[in-house]
Design goal:
Blueprint (H helix, E strand, L loop, with lengths): L2 H9 L24 H15 L5 H5 L4 H9 L2
């Protein structure tokens, strides 16, 4: 798994947030556009692109995009 690709895939979820704002240390829960729908989109992307399953609870335990990346990488 590649962090740069994961960051790009994660950034694709958002319409109004510029992709350059999404970095490994971004605390995604604080993004203006973050919502439960965003969480569901993350779950869908992780399953469709990376073939792994995560839950909303898994996402809640992550603070940064890198935390989420590590979670998916280690599933």
């Amino acid at each position: 798994m590649d962090l740069e690709k994961f960051l790009a895939d994660f950034a694709d979820i958002f319409d109004e947030t510029d992709a350059s704002e999404i970095k490994a240390d971004t605390q995604f829960h604080y993004l203006d556009e973050w919502s439960s729908m965003s969480g569901m989109a993350v779950i869908a992307i992780v399953k469709s692109i990376y073939g792994k399953e995560i839950t909303g609870e898994d996402i809640k335990k992550c603070d940064t995009v890198n935390d989420l990346f590590e979670l998916v990488k280690n599933k």
